[in-house]
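Why does residue order matter? Because the sequence determines the fold. Keep that principle in mind as you read this record.
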Amino acid sequence: EVQLVESGGGLVQAGGSLRLSCATSGFTFDDYAIGWFRQAPGKEREGVSCISGSDGTTYYSDSVQGRFTISSDNAKNTVYLQMNSLKPEDTAVYHCAVIFFPRIETIRRLCMPYDFWGQGTQVTVSS
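Structure:
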């Protein structure tokens, strides 16, 4: 059973930083991509960042490019999202998610839509 458990969210002032973690289990496929999407109240899901499991290439949305960094620790089966220079518009529930056997075009679209995702962690940025 695929499981993705996020942690690290919270309340932070604008300009601050948070690091989200995603503990993964239940899959051993070599061909996958993993990343993060977010959803704010009343808004659609937005892809944030994605990392290819096969070659480690990373992708970011324009809105977070240069501020967020995705990384993975395969030994710990954990994916991270380092978020710096946070803005109030970054406020949302952040979900860790995985897609199996993704096409390259899908990875370049920030892996949306994903196959599985976790419950999410709330990130609130105050102005």
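The mean pLDDT is 95.
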